[in-house]
Amino acid sequence: MDGHPRTADGLLRRALRRHPRELGAATVLLSLHQACEALVPVAIGVTIDRAVATGSVPALLACLAATALLFVVLSQAYRYGARHVVTGWWTETHRLRVEVAARVLDPHGLRGAPPAGELLSTATDDAERAGRVVEAASLVVAGTTALVVSAFGLLAVSVPLGVGVLLGAPLLVGLLQLLGPWLTRRTATQQADVARAAGLAADLVRGTRVLRGIRAEDAAADRYRRASRAALASTLRSAGAIGAYRGATVLGSGLFGVAVAGVAGALALDGAMTVGQLVTVVGLAQFLAEPVGLLGFAGQKVAEARASAARLVAVLTAEPLHPVGAAPRPGPGALAVPAAGFHVEPGEVLGVVAPDPADAESLVALLGLRRPVTPGELLLDGADAAALDPAAVRARVLVEPHAVVLFEGTLRTALDPAGAADDTALTRALAAAGAADLPDLDLPVADRGRSLSGGQRQRVGLARALLRAPDVLVLHDPTTAVDAVTEADVADGLRGLRAGRTTVLVTSSPALLGRCDRVVVLRGGSVEAVGTHAELTGHAGYAAAVLR
């Protein structure tokens, strides 16, 4: 989509540009903290040479006061620097999550959208890792500052030592960064495999009842087992890469510190430095492991952020499923799929019977614009739906899928999330959907409607669709979880509440089909027969699908 970076590095650069205040404050304060940390060995060496060695009490008190002030500054700098880091990091994470959510909810759709579980992983884990580039950037500057201050501290004691640190530290860090691309590839593979397993798990949990119904639990479990093992294997490989990277960082910084301390020891034996200077050099040699470790940690986080940013960019810049079009003109609500010989007259209640469930799914997906629409494939009041704005089309044509999703809250909010309808309208919709037996509108509803029975959940979903009162309402198997008596009540309620509006019932229920003005039999994507329910009972395909 326009406005979003089209590369992973571009997205990370934008993340840094979006938080100048937090990034600037964090960088300055953490750099001050690291500079003060590097000055601690210097302060101790000065104290030994100017106070301990001379026995001067005033000098000792002054040195202790200066050292105490140094610790106050470094502790407060870290405190507020870390606060700015976390603020920038999580603010960017939030903004990325909002952008992913907006892209997923875009009425024009998402071409090639991954499963819902993968999208969730992208919007949560990947957004968090990408947002952490704010922390990594500030740590790079802070670590570099510590190395520079340490080098100048060593220069004050010994020019060869200072020059050695100024030349050796960048070389060590550069060698560590050579592992960055390898780490990014391992991390990207691991994130993709984990997201795929998470997406599959979410799909399987959502479809547990269906899997049990078709006795496919073992096949589903085997499929998830393979995905989970692949995720585990890639996670172990990624962990091995991170361990190798961290090990190389610790080993490199340790050897570097030992080399500096060894040279300092040799100079001390030759009488080229005082005891205080030796303490300073040894302290700085030990401290060097910290900034080198910070730079190594930052490199690891950048590698992870780059892998996550690539996944975010794939979602944010995905092509729309439907192009931007014109708003449909007001009309009576006629629908037509010319190639299939399918049409619905304004105000008609049309039943659709598809002996092959795939034909029903295909029709519902087309009417709900869940897939790309080719020119001339779908007409709304004579206008080509491919040239119309999908949001405007959906405002007039509401497709209620078979799988009902209800959000946590009360029955009232489940029916009317916007709170625009009064209690009379809510009660009328519930009655038409055969759900008048539900206790009251303030009945608590758990996430996904788990506190309701299957039949109650289905009827609440139907009532929600009826409450919208769209020009065209398409219902896919709206009564499969209710008993015959309730189904007959729903059929009567639909006819009454939808009088004068176009309604399409994709179903095999005799009770619903018997209330339809016309019924069409759909086979192989085309209309095979047309008539009333009574007229079609002699049709072999219709009888096999309906009169069972």
Automatic annotation (TrEMBL):
<keyword id="KW-0472">Membrane</keyword>
<keyword id="KW-0812">Transmembrane</keyword>
<dbReference type="GO" id="GO:0005524">
    <property type="term" value="F:ATP binding"/>
</dbReference>
<feature type="transmembrane region" description="Helical">
    <location>
        <begin position="136"/>
        <end position="157"/>
    </location>
</feature>
<feature type="domain" description="ABC transporter">
    <location>
        <begin position="316"/>
        <end position="547"/>
    </location>
</feature>
<feature type="transmembrane region" description="Helical">
    <location>
        <begin position="247"/>
        <end position="269"/>
    </location>
</feature>
<dbReference type="InterPro" id="IPR036640">
    <property type="entry name" value="ABC1_TM_sf"/>
</dbReference>
<dbReference type="InterPro" id="IPR039421">
    <property type="entry name" value="Type_1_exporter"/>
</dbReference>
<keyword id="KW-1133">Transmembrane helix</keyword>
<dbReference type="Pfam" id="PF00005">
    <property type="entry name" value="ABC_tran"/>
</dbReference>
<dbReference type="InterPro" id="IPR027417">
    <property type="entry name" value="P-loop_NTPase"/>
</dbReference>
<dbReference type="GO" id="GO:0005886">
    <property type="term" value="C:plasma membrane"/>
</dbReference>
<dbReference type="GO" id="GO:0016887">
    <property type="term" value="F:ATP hydrolysis activity"/>
</dbReference>
<feature type="transmembrane region" description="Helical">
    <location>
        <begin position="56"/>
        <end position="74"/>
    </location>
</feature>
<dbReference type="InterPro" id="IPR017871">
    <property type="entry name" value="ABC_transporter-like_CS"/>
</dbReference>
<dbReference type="Pfam" id="PF00664">
    <property type="entry name" value="ABC_membrane"/>
</dbReference>
<keyword id="KW-0547">Nucleotide-binding</keyword>
<dbReference type="InterPro" id="IPR011527">
    <property type="entry name" value="ABC1_TM_dom"/>
</dbReference>
<dbReference type="InterPro" id="IPR003439">
    <property type="entry name" value="ABC_transporter-like_ATP-bd"/>
</dbReference>
<feature type="transmembrane region" description="Helical">
    <location>
        <begin position="163"/>
        <end position="183"/>
    </location>
</feature>
<keyword id="KW-0067">ATP-binding</keyword>
<feature type="domain" description="ABC transmembrane type-1">
    <location>
        <begin position="25"/>
        <end position="304"/>
    </location>
</feature>
<protein>
    <submittedName>
        <fullName>Putative ABC transport system ATP-binding protein</fullName>
    </submittedName>
</protein>
<dbReference type="GO" id="GO:0015421">
    <property type="term" value="F:ABC-type oligopeptide transporter activity"/>
</dbReference>
